[in-house]
Design brief:
463 residues, alpha/beta, Alpha-D-Glucose-1,6-Bisphosphate, Chain A, domain 3, 4 domains, six-stranded antiparallel β-sheet, globular
């Protein structure tokens, strides 16, 4: 019976964030840490009477070894393990949902190749965040995870890719849409694994870009939130004369959309069109949106007879609110989209299928179809590196002081959101939950206004 060696709280909290585990491999993230984290998670799940945990990993080179170490820790606690192998994050959520098992997904999502981490969930893809289990895991790692004197768990291997594809195709029927040419940039991430399995035998001509699985990301980073990582797809859409472009992040739980003119479609517009589709089927339903999404989102929800509920950023917070509010759909500015029939979990693939269904169900090109959902201009997420929490707080307060005489309304649901007097302009400044960054998002009626506002806020943050 192995009892884990105690660890410093500072070291543990450096990699266990608000809603996941993430860090640089070799600097806080290694096999020993993952074995102990697996033991802590196994112990927590055993205390909740779980008998089996599903484990998947993305295409990062460090994934298989770290996943195996984590599995060893789980097995030490007398809990069985099913190794799913290569999976997208939403594929792991699917398996957790249909099998009613807790899960651990090894990924660092959009982060560079040096990173890895874990997204944890309970059975039914229910989130494990700081207030719903991660704090307990931290305490166990700091104290030293106690050993278990019962029988060791058993390990098996399985694959759920085909079942995942079938499940999604049943949720969104694309069989009757008009033929579409779809350019897909997988960024050498898990989209290259899942797209061929899901979007098959449909009236879709898939044009693949960077489908080879490679966690070193040789072509560009798997972070489509950064505009520079969309450039290849924008050109590819034009070169292939595609009707639509889809860009997935590394673990394929996010999807960004490019129109036939090579222009990005804002995630807020995607949120709005999916919300509209749900409200057409379920009048009066509740839709979740985070506080960074465009004001157009709650406006369109209300116009379609729905109830809009605003929440903070982050998947564990959104999922919890989805459940408590009985919401049918939720969207974030970062292109995370959550679905009640997908266990309140996020799926980039399912969001893409809704957009394909909307596009293929009418005759207009995507740019014309989406025009009514873009009512404001947005800055996009602009990051400033400020390593310490004290520096982030000091710069945030400096921004509030700078705008003090022009503030109409302020709230602190997540960072600070400021609405300015005499205009529809607003901005949010918040600390990242996963990186040493202070994030700025701004919105205004015109491009000139949002550019000027962003520059003014950044001049204070970066002073």
């Amino acid at each position: 019976m192995r009892t884990a060696t105690p660890r410093s709280r500072e070291a543990v909290e450096a990699v266990i964030k608000a809603y996941d585990v993430r860090g640089i491999v070799g600097e806080g993230i290694d096999a020993d840490f993952m074995r102990d984290t697996g033991a802590a998670f196994g112990r927590l799940m055993r205390s909740e009477e779980a008998t089996q945990i599903l484990i998947g990993h993305d295409m990062r080179a460090s994934g298989p070894g770290l996943a195996r170490a984590f599995a060893d820790g789980v097995l030490e606690q007398g809990v069985d393990v099913v190794m799913l192998g290569l999976t997208s994050t939403d594929q792991l959520y699917y398996a957790s949902g249909v099998r009613s098992c807790p899960g651990a997904m090894f990924t660092a999502s959009h982060n560079p190749a040096a990173y890895n981490g874990i997204k944890l969930c309970r059975s039914g893809a229910r989130p494990v965040g700081q207030e719903s289990g991660l704090a307990t895991i931290i305490d166990d790692l700091v104290a030293g995870v106690p050993g278990f004197d019962g029988a060791r768990g058993t390990l098996t291997e399985d694959d759920c890719l085909e079942g995942y594809g079938e499940y999604l195709r049943e949720l969104v029927d694309l069989s009757g849409i008009r033929p579409l040419k779809v350019a897909v940039d997988a960024a050498n991430g898990m989209g290259g694994h899942t797209v061929p399995a899901v979007l098959k035998n449909l009236p879709l001509e898939i044009e693949p870009l960077f489908f080879e699985l490679d966690g070193s990301f040789p072509n560009h980073e798997a972070n489509p939130l950064d505009p520079k990582n969309l450039v290849d797809l924008q050109k590819f859409v034009l070169d292939t004369k595609a009707d639509i472009g889809l860009a997935f992040d590394g673990d394929a739980d996010r999807c960004f959309v490019i129109d036939e003119l090579g222009q990005p479609v804002s995630p807020s517009a995607v949120c709005a069109i999916v919300a509209e589709r749900y409200l057409a089927e379920k009048p009066g339903a509740t839709i979740i949106h985070n506080l960074i999404t465009s004001k157009a989102v709650p406006e369109i929800i209300a116009e379609n007879g729905g109830k809009a509920v605003r929440t903070r950023v982050g998947h564990s917070f959104i999922k919890a609110t989805m459940a408590s509010a009985g919401a049918v759909f939720g969207g974030e500015h970062s292109a995370h989209y959550y679905f009640t029939e997908f266990f309140n979990a996020d799926s980039g693939m399912l969001a893409a299928m809704h957009v394909l269904a909307a596009l293929g169900g009418q005759a207009k090109p995507l740019s014309e179809m989406m025009a009514k959902y873009d009512r404001y201009e947005a800055s996009g997420e602009i990051n400033s590196q400020l390593a310490s929490k004290a520096a982030q707080e000091e710069r945030t307060q400096a921004v509030l002081d700078h705008f003090a005489n022009r503030i109409e309304k302020i709230d602190r649901l997540d960072g600070v959101t400021v609405e300015l007097k005499g205009t529809k302009a607003w901005f949010n400044v918040r600390a990242s939950n996963t990186e040493p960054l202070l994030r700025l998002n701004a919105e205004a009626p015109t491009r000139a206004e949002v550019d000027a506002l962003s520059a003014e806020v950044l001049s204070v943050i970066r002073a």
